[in-house]
Write a structure and sequence with these properties.
- The protein is mainly α.
- The chain contains nine helices and no strands.
- The chain is elongated.
- The two termini are about 120 Å apart.
Length: about 500
């Protein structure tokens, strides 16, 4: 319903007519915009309002009275008086409706107040129940926290006792480990001595490189030392493994004890918290987070298992220390007995080698005398061969010159025949002399070889004596004492 005197609705508020299904012809469109005014940018500054707005805006305001500048609306546009409007324009209520409305409001107010009073009573009882329930619940939680703190204190004391015992046992086993390491390091000296003796005896030359009793005893000594080292190393590995077990058990105890201390601190703090304590806050949704990983049974069993594991490790460690002590004593005695056997074998072998050396020296002097005499004979034969070679050169030179005689002068006369015979005789003599020279040289070589063999054998014996007497026995004069092998120092 539109009231009189209001501006008309804008054109853009009216519903648009439906678009035509077929576009108009180009000629029709052209005819429609021929008489249009060209586009001016100033048109954008004017608002889009109906014609009545433009008419009102066109009035020029003046300072004259309103009656003079605005004569008023025409009679057709004046709103008529209410009594003059037709029936049904405004809504009317009866007096009964008015009374009924008041009574309804009174009853609703009384009902609402009655409900509010009952709600206040219910809220008072509910608040009292909430306080009592909260106090009872908080008291039970505090009691449970106190019991939990007592349980933690008990297991803390058990863990501390077992941890002290494990630390003492671990320290004792660590001392035994150091003794084993020193004993194992002390066996390195005798092992290196025996090994060097074998290596030095490998430098023996010729026939002296023999597998004698000394070598057998040295090999036996190396085997014994290696066996002792292996047993000591196995024992050391066992001790190291046991130390690791002890350390793991100790770490488990320390970790469990640290967790107990942290849990004791947290639970004690929770036990002491009150409604008036400082530092309490809201943690929304924390009750829905279940971060627990154990129950009281598994919690107590975990600590009990740690203590039992530590006690088992301590018992095993004590047995291992006793067996290690007996092993140290046995290996030291075994190595000492074999050391004495090797020294006795060296002494007898040195005496035998010295006797062989004196006999070789006698044979060597005789061989040198024979070599001197055969060398003298070889020099005589070489001089004779040189003389015969000169004669051969003369005879062959004559025959070569006679081959240049011209024509019939190339006569096979007595001189030619004799020269040929002379060359053949000299060649035969030279062959015989060369055979003698070769035989003498072969004999000289045999003597020289025999001399070389004797010299080599003499050098071999000297080398063997030097190795056995100086190098090997020089290293075996001292041996680590039993106290050092046992690792006491």
């Amino acid at each position: 319903m539109e009231l009189y005197g209001y501006p008309l609705k804008a054109k853009f508020n009216q519903p648009r007519p439906p678009p035509p299904k077929v576009l108009p012809a180009t000629s029709t469109v052209a005819a429609s915009y021929k008489n249009r005014i060209p586009y001016h940018p100033e048109s954008f500054s004017m608002p889009w309002m109906p014609n009545s707005y433009y008419k009102a805006a066109a009035l020029n305001p003046t300072l004259a009275p309103l009656t003079e500048s605005f004569p008023g609306l025409p009679p057709t546009k004046i709103v008529p008086f209410i009594s003059e409007r037709p029936n049904g324009v405004f809504t009317r209520h009866t007096l009964d409706d008015w009374h009924r409305s008041n009574m309804t409001n009174y009853k609703e107010s009384e009902t609402t107040r009655h409900n509010a009073e009952r709600l206040r009573a219910d809220l008072t009882r509910a608040i009292k129940d909430v306080y009592q329930q909260a106090k009872r619940t908080q008291g039970e939680s505090t009691k449970n926290l106190g019991e939990r703190v007592n349980d933690i204190e008990y297991w803390k004391s058990e863990l501390c006792i077992e941890l002290d015992a494990m630390i003492r046992e671990t320290n004792s086993l660590a001392d035994m480990q150091k003794r084993l390491e020193r004993a194992l390091a002390d066996t390195e000296g005798p092992f290196q001595v025996a090994h060097k003796c074998l290596l030095n005896r490998e430098k023996r030359m010729g026939i002296d490189l023999v597998s004698d009793d000394v070598e057998k005893q040295l090999i036996t000594e190396i085997k014994i030392i290696r066996s002792c080292r292996e047993r000591l190393q196995q024992c050391l590995d066992t001790v190291n493994a046991q130390l690791m077990c002890n350390k793991e058990a100790r770490q488990e105890l320390e970790k469990d004890l640290a967790d107990k201390q942290m849990g004791h601190h947290i639970d004690s703090k929770c036990y002491q918290l009150k409604n008036t304590s400082r530092g309490i806050h809201y943690f929304k949704g924390v009750e829905r987070i279940d971060a627990t990983v154990s129950v009281p049974e598994t919690w107590a069993r975990f600590t009990d298992n740690n203590i039992f594991r530590s006690q088992s490790a301590r018992a095993t460690s004590a047995k291992l220390r006793a067996s290690t002590e007996s092993l140290l004593m046995g290996t030291a005695d075994e190595m000492w007995r074999q050391f004495s056997k090797v020294n006795d074998a060296f002494t007898s072998r040195i005496t035998e080698t010295a006797n062989a050396k004196s006999k070789i020296q006698t044979q060597f002097s005789k061989t040198r005398q024979e070599i001197f005499q055969i060398e003298t004979k070889i020099q005589v034969i070489q001089k004779t061969i040189r003389d015969k070679e000169v004669q051969l050169k003369v005879a062959q030179t004559r025959l070569d010159e006679r081959t240049r005689r011209p024509n019939v002068e190339l006569c096979r006369d007595a001189a030619q025949i004799r020269l040929v015979q002379e060359v053949n005789e000299i060649n035969e003599t030279l062959r015989n002399l060369h055979q003698c020279l070769r035989a003498s040289e072969d004999m000289l070589q045999m003597l020289v070889r025999s001399k070389g063999v004797l010299e080599h054998d003499l050098v071999v014996k000297n080398n063997s004596l030097f190795i056995d007497q100086e190098r090997c026995m020089g290293m075996r004069k001292s041996y680590p004492s039993t106290v050092q092998i046992l690792g006491y120092v």
